[in-house]
Specification:
The protein is mainly beta.
Length: about 750
């Protein structure tokens, strides 16, 4: 397992900035690599050409002066080049403009960042010592001898180290020569250090026209094909912002929180993104669960609503956890209270260790490697031709994937035969250089199969005549004749429907294909494998089959009701009976990767208050009636009212607490045989019976509560949160389903 702990005040060693960082091939220190990348992107400190930064080289006093002046926001020094202040710095000296600007430029001169020697010279070509570097950096921050102390350089070194300007570099003696790489780290620390004068902006703000703080970088065009080249997506104050870049941002920054710096010339473009100091760590997933992440040596409890950056999109952990497969690298960010603030799942790249099994070019899997598919260890004989295999030398593991997408090649850039991105089933996939060769000879509208690794990255492609797959997914959204299907392979398919008749499949498990015009063809998928026994949740077996650790669990509360994704945390059962399992999906090794349940948890319903409404139309001789259910419920913490026209109006709907299948929004206003779950009273309690928000004590025992349970306030006729209800009411009637095989549960509460 790869794990690196980063204490508060340190920048993540894995977070690099700018395309230039990738070109510096002679840097091994992560701290130096990051500093070099940031300073190069800000055009403060460049390399020496040919991909070299020369981190072990030395800096002269003139060179360090140039860095300081540029970092203070002055890059054009032409006005200061035609005269001489120091006798050993004539106007012809390359650094005369920078040295003179340090003494004469209005905003810099008062800082007195440089001084000459007693003999009146400056010594531009003398190498700079640690004491001199500390002094110049402190003066850039506005510190004077009155602030620091009279003893030079001891007081200056002590103050600089007290401010953390030496953070991330080895110890230096007073008169030791500072290496280029360490000087870069010290300068980056200074750009982010608080200036001496209160209210003064950080120095990094001087190299930008404007900044945006507390921003999260979600994606760049290199990691998200929905973005145009040179764009990046940021999350700021609850909103998504797409910005143009003056240069590239390294993908390792995705998911970090920091400051956006806009270029001083092209003022509407982002020049750099500087991650803020944070308490964070990088972990490798051993197994993700609905409420926690396990690594080789720790368990991290993760609240359901924790934000997760996954594939360039900000989602909640409750949605993301099934896709956090074993060996996924995650950056975990903590707040000041050591609570998880953000999880960033880095976008994996294609690696040279991946190969297609069963081909002439296949790599031999070492004999001492264990073979894993969908998190389950399998025998070598269970590997199939065209399985994608990735070797992990550190864990001695071969990870096999049979995730595939088959469809027509609708677009490619820059060319079909050597693409960097392709579109299949309305989804655009990034294609790495070493995968692009698989597309040689392909053209527009060829039917292809993309082979995906366990992270969803395309690692190979073949004509569909060579290898193909059934595209299975859940039809999740429909609007204006267009559909979105969340594929079980981990990606989404989208596009215009070939037939309007497919709209009735909303919320169902479907088979997805496309016609030659790129329109989606959807048909209901019913070929589930039968459960050959009960499901032991704890031992992860279903009958004689193994259940994948990241198994997707769906619940369909009634025939034709929409499918709802749930988690294993929602199950109060150690065993689910075979009779409660509608069916399962298997991978090519026979492991269970998806389980489809009947109404087991009760959480596939949306709970609320319902009223029946029957309206007569037409004359008495030719009368007809429109039946509708008026349903009050809570969505994202707000009460909403929905009306459903139905063929048959259930009895007893006069302010009754009921459940309607989740996902019925798409059929609102339509005639529909709507399944209804009626709730029964399971107890009445006072406010002191509640145990936080996890459960409630009743005379018949302790009952668990859903995380987002709604409370109906009888006096205001509004649905509110349990927290608000406990602050304002004393008497509570509990409604649930005592007959559920999942144990007695409370699904709704009435307060008065």
């Amino acid at each position: 397992m790869i794990k690196k702990r980063i204490l508060c005040g340190a920048l993540s060693a894995t977070l690099l900035l700018g395309s230039a960082a990738a070109s510096f091939t002679d840097i091994s220190s992560p701290n130096v690599k990051q500093a070099a990348a940031v300073l190069d992107a800000l055009q403060i400190m460049q390399g020496e050409g040919a991909g070299r930064f020369n981190p072990g080289g030395q800096l002269t006093r003139a060179q360090f002066c140039k860095l300081a002046v540029t970092a203070l926001g002055v890059s054009d020094v032409s006005a200061y080049k035609n005269y001489s202040v120091f006798p050993d710095v004539p106007a012809s000296h390359w650094a005369s403009g920078y040295i003179n600007a340090a003494l004469k430029q209005t905003d810099i001169a008062e800082k007195k960042i440089i001084r000459g020697f007693a003999n009146g010279t400056f010594g531009p070509d003398k190498t700079i010592t640690y004491g001199e570097a500390c002094t110049m950096l402190l003066r850039m921050l506005g510190y004077t001898v009155d602030d620091v102390g009279p003893f030079w350089p001891t007081d200056y070194i002590g103050k600089a180290e007290g401010l953390g300007l030496n953070r991330g570099i080895p110890h230096y003696g007073t008169n030791e020569i500072v290496k280029r790489g360490d000087a870069a780290v010290m300068l980056l620390n200074t750009l982010q250090a608080a200036p001496k004068k209160d209210g003064t902006k950080l120095l990094m703000n001087t190299v930008a026209t404007s900044t945006v703080e507390d921003s999260i970088l979600l994606a760049t065009s290199e990691t998200d094909s929905d973005l145009r080249k040179g764009q990046a997506r940021f999350y700021e104050s609850g909103a998504i912002q797409i910005r143009s870049l003056a240069d590239t941002l390294d993908r390792a920054l995705i998911g970090t929180r920091g400051t956006v710096l806009f270029d001083k010339l092209t003022t509407n473009k982002v020049r750099a993104f500087v991650p803020k100091s944070s308490d964070s760590e990088t972990i490798t997933v051993k197994q993700a669960y609905a409420d926690r992440i396990e690594t080789a040596d720790q368990k991290l409890k993760v609240p359901t609503k924790t934000p997760v950056v996954l594939n360039g999109t900000l989602v909640e952990y409750g949605t993301a956890w099934p896709d956090l497969t074993p060996d996924y690298a995650l950056n975990i960010f903590y707040d000041s209270g050591r609570q998880i603030e953000l999880i960033s799942a880095a976008t994996p790249t294609a690696g040279a260790s991946s190969f297609v099994y069963g081909m002439i070019s296949s790599v031999k899997i070492p004999a001492d490697y264990k073979i894993m598919k969908n998190g389950v260890e399998i025998e070598r004989g269970a590997l199939q031709q065209y399985d994608l295999v990735s070797l992990n030398a550190e864990s001695k593991t071969a990870v096999a994937s049979d995730r595939r997408i088959t469809g027509y090649l609708r677009s490619a850039a820059p060319s079909y035969t050597r693409p960097s991105r392709v579109t299949v089933l309305g989804h655009e996939f990034p294609i790495s250089d070493n995968v692009a060769s698989y597309f040689t000879g392909m053209k527009f509208n060829d039917k292809v199969t993309l082979l995906l690794d366990s992270f969803g990255t395309v690692q190979a492609a073949y004509p569909a005549s060579t290898v193909s797959t059934e595209n299975i997914g859940v039809f999740t959204a429909s609007a204006s004749g267009k559909a979105t299907v969340q594929m079980l392979a981990g990606v989404s398919a989208s596009g215009e429907l070939s037939s309007s008749d497919s709209a009735c499949l909303l919320g169902q498990l479907v088979r997805v294909s496309a016609d030659s015009n790129g329109k989606l063809l959807l048909t209901g998928y019913t070929a589930l494998s039968a459960a050959d026994g009960s499901w032991s949740v704890s031992s992860r077996t279903l009958g004689k089959r193994k259940v994948a650790p990241n198994v997707k669990i769906y619940e369909t509360v009634a025939d034709r009701a929409p499918i709802a994704l749930i988690s294993d945390r929602d199950l109060n059962l150690t065993t689910v009976a075979a009779a409660d399992i509608r069916g399962v999906l298997l991978d090519s090794a026979g492991s269970v990767t998806s389980i489809f349940l009947r109404d087991v948890t009760g959480l596939g319903w949306q709970y609320g208050i319902a009223y029946g409404n029957r309206v007569k139309t037409g004359s008495d001789e030719d009368a007809s009636y429109i039946n509708s259910i008026v349903f009050k419920t809570r969505v994202n913490g707000e009460m909403v009212t929905r009306t459903y026209q139905v063929d048959h109006l259930p009895s007893g709907l006069s302010g009754s607490p009921i459940g309607l299948p989740k996902g019925m929004d798409g059929v609102e206003g339509m005639l529909y045989n709507l399944p209804v779950k009626k709730l029964t009273t399971v107890g009445s309690v006072g406010v002191n019976a509640f145990d936080g928000v996890d459960g409630v004590k009743t005379p018949s025992g302790y009952l668990t509560l859903p995380e987002d349970i709604s409370v109906y306030a009888s006096d205001t006729e509004k649905l509110i949160s349990l927290r608000e209800a406990k602050l304002n009411y004393q008497e509570f009637t509990l409604y649930g389903d005592t007959s559920s095989s999942n144990g007695a549960r409370v699904y709704m509460i009435r307060a008065k």
